[in-house]
Amino acid sequence: MIRISAPESAFEGEVIELKAMIQHPMETGYRRDSKGDIIPRDIIKSFRCTYDGNIVFEAEFFPGIAANPFLTFHARATHTGALTFSWTDQHGESWTEERMLTVS
Amino acid sequence: MRRACLLALVLAGCSEDHDRVAQPSQIAPEDIQSGYDFLQPETQSLQDDEFANPGYLWVDKGQALFNQAPENGGPTCSSCHSDDSRPVSKAAAHYPAIDELTGKLVNIEARINLCRERYQDLSPLEYESDELLGLTAYLSHLAQGEPVSVKIDGPAKKYYAAGEEYFFLRKGQFNLACSQCHNEHWGEKLRGDTISQGHGNAFPAYRMEWQTFGSLHRRLRDCDSGIRAEPLEFGSETYTAVELYLAKRAEGLAMESPGIRR
To answer: Which of B49, B51, B141 should be substituted to probe chain A, the one whose Cβ sees the most A Cβ atoms within 10 Å?
Structure first.
C-alpha cells in the first residue's frame, strides 16, 4: 500500500507540501528469528519524486530507517505537470504512484 | 520428620486452587482511561494525524478489499453491507458478539471469515494476514468514536465468565494474572513504561514494538509471553472470551482504531 498527499491544484509560485508513505517492513538484517537464524535484510534503498520529469526530492534509505517509511517535503509549483513518487528496493523492484498537479 | 511435614505443607499450598486466582479487583468506573492517556504526546499526535498514522495503510487496504469483487465472481462485501441494508458502520464497537446461527461467540475477525464462507464462497483469511488485518482495520475505523458496548447476557454469559476467569488466573513462570498489572498497578512503572489499564479499544493497532499492525489477539499473546506463560492460538475461544470481558470492562470508551501503541 502507498499513501500520497499532494494538492490537485496550486497557484504559480506556491510552495506545496507533499507527503508519501509506503508499506514496507524495512527488515534490518541484524535481527534473528526464534530459531536463531538471521532474518535477511529487506529494505528500500531509494526514493525519488519528480515534477514533470525533473527531480524535486530524492532520498537514500539505510537499515536504520523504521518500517513503513514516511516522508514530508516541499516543492514550488511552476506549471501544470505530473508528480511521480517512486521507491526502489535492494533487489531493484520499484513502486510508483503519480498525481497530476494543475497550476493556475 | 519435621522437614517432611514442611515439604508436604508447601506442596499442598502450591496445588490449592485459590493460589492460582488473583485477589478480586476492579477499576472504579470514573477512573477508566484509554491506553491513549498513557502514551507520550508525540505518540498521541501520531495516532491523531490521519496521514502520518501508519495504521491507515491497513485501513486503505481494507477499504479496497471491502469494495473489490472476489475472483470467484461472488458478491463484494459492500454489495450486502450498504448504508441502507445491514450497515456495518458502528458494528465493530459491539463485538465480540454471538453468531446467531451457531450460538458461538465471534470477534470481528471471525465474523469476516464467516461472511466469506457463508456468502462469498471463499476460504477464511489467515489471522494476522494483511488482508484480514486490513478488513478488520477498515471496519473498526468506521466505528471510530463510538463507545464500546457489548452484550454479555444469554448465550454470551458463559463466554464472559470464561474471559473473566482468564483475566484473574495467575499463570506463567511469573505467576501473574492480567488483573495484577492492569487493575492493581495501572499508572505505575514497569521498567520504563507506564502500565496502562489494558483496554482493547484501539485495536487492531500499530505497535512500535512490532513495527507493524496487529490484532488484539497478537497483543494478548505478547502479554502472555511477557509473563512467561504459553500464548494461546490466534482466534482461540479463550482469547475471544477474554476479548468480550475486556470490551465489557472498557464499556463507554471510544473506539480508536487504528490506534498507535508502544
So the answer is: B51
- What mean pLDDT comes out for the span A7-16? 97
Could you please state the CATH topology (level 3) that the domain comprising A2-103 is classified under. Answer: Immunoglobulin-like (2.60.40)
B179 to chain A, closest Cα gap in Å = 29
Q: Which candidate, A93, A96, A97, places its Cα nearest to that of A45?
A: A93
Stretch B248-254: mean pLDDT: 97
Q: Show the beta-strand stretches assigned E in chain B.
A: 97-98, 105-106, 189-190, 193-194, 205-207, 212-214, 259-261
Q: Is B72 exposed, middle or buried (0-12, 13-18, 19+ CB in 10 A)?
A: exposed
Phi, psi at B23, each rounded to 5°: -65, 150
Chain B nearest CA to A93, separation (Å):
20
A100 close to B (CB below 8 A): no
Partner-chain residue, chosen from A1, A19, A66, that has the shortest CB–CB distance to B60: A1
Q: Judge: A3–B57 Cβ closer than 8 Å, yes or no.
A: yes
Q: Report d(CA B56, CA B51) in Å as an integer.
A: 7
| Residue type present at position B80 | C
CA-wise closest residue to B206 among B192, B219, B222 = B219
Q: At what angle do helices B55-67 and B130-142 cross, to 10 degrees?
A: 90
CB-based contact (8 Å) between A70 and chain B? yes
Tell whether A9 lies on the interface with B, counting CB pairs under 8 A.
no
Q: Which of the four pLDDT bands, split at 50, 70 and 90, describes residue B12?
A: very low
pLDDT digits (tens, 9 = 90+) for B201-223: 999 999 999 999 999 999 999 99
